[in-house]
Every structure is written in C-alpha cells, then in structure tokens.
Amino acid sequence: xxxxxxxxxxxxxxxxxxxxxxxxxxxxxxxxxxxxxLETDVLTDISNNVFTGFSASDVxxxxxxxxxxxxxxxxxxxLTPKTxxxxxxxxSASATxxxxxxxxxSDETVATVNGNLVTLVGAGSANITATQGGDATFNAAxxxxxxxxxxxADQTLVFESLQAVNVSDPPFALAAxxxxxxxxxxxTSDVNVATVLGNxxxx
Length: 203
Description:
Blueprint: E1 13-17, E2 20-24, E3 33-38, E4 58-63, E5 74-75, E6 82-83, E7 89-90, E8 94-95, E9 102-105, E10 111-114, E11 117-120, E12 124-131, E13 144-151, E14 157-159, E15 172-173, E16 176-178, E17 195-197, E18 200-202
Parallel strand pairs: 6-13
Antiparallel strand pairs: 1-2, 3-4, 5-8, 7-11, 9-12, 10-11, 12-13, 14-16, 15-18, 17-18
C-alpha cells in the first residue's frame, strides 16, 4: 500500500519448516511498503495439515529496499592549448545521467574556472577536472581530468635610436618599454665606450 493505493500481490511459493514459514514473492517494486496478511488456515503442509505456528490472523508490514543507484560517466574532450592573453573561453562536458557537470582548476595562477568559463591568469599548465556528484538515482561519476596548456605570450620592445654624445657629456637615462609592461634591462657591447647601470648610461 502506498499513497492509499492497494495492490494485490500473489505469493509465488511458501515453505513450512517446523515453526518457520518462508514466503516467496514475485519481483516487488523498490522502495514501497507492503502488508502481508495471513489467515490461520491459509497454510497447509503436503499432507494438507493446517500450519499451527500462529493461532490468529495477523498482518506483517515490510518495506522493500530503495532501487540501487545507476552508474554514470562523463564525456569531456581534450582542451586546445591557449596563449596567455587569449580571451576567456567556455568549456563543456556532459554526463550520461544528464545531470550538470562541474569544473575545477588545479592551479589558479594559470587558469580559474567560474561555472564553465575559463579565464587565463598566467602561462603554464593546469588540470581542469570535470565532476558529477550524483543524486538519489545516480552514483557519482568518475572524475575526468584534462590538461590545459597556456603558452607564454609574445612581446615587443620600443627603443628609439640614441643620439651621438661627447665623452665629456654627463650620464643620461635610457628609455625603452615592453608591450608586456615588464621592466626592460640594458647592456653595452663595449664597456670601454660606455657603461650601463640600471637605465643610466655613462660614456
């Protein structure tokens, strides 16, 4: 009986062993409550003798176990290498259960994941893991890990030509810039002509 709905279930077989009665049912529904009613004269042995193990009609209540959870798996394709500076991009994966798949990054100094949107933070590599934790019907899926490679970005220097100077002129500053915004270093090919300390050149 479930939600005030009754169902008649026939017994496949019953067996009497001394004072114990074993009753075999056909396949019952998972996660349902059943009531078994036995009358005093309903069970007889092979000689048609009435079973006397109970002296009055009685009702037994039992609940079948919940249905076993189903397995599921995740489909998550390999990730295309990226270059630092590329725009954020979406990733996708699917579970055979049709449940939502979640993503996480192993190294957030390389890439972060928000939902299914990946944002590149630096060059290097990070593992992006797809997971699905299951629900009342499905077991958790085995995680699927994909490597995301983020290559270094190219950069350019802007360094204008130097004007001629005299040996007696005072030291002067060099000015160059990198498209990356990183600091620029300077060296001289001949210290007998000029020396460089930081961005200051002395001739």
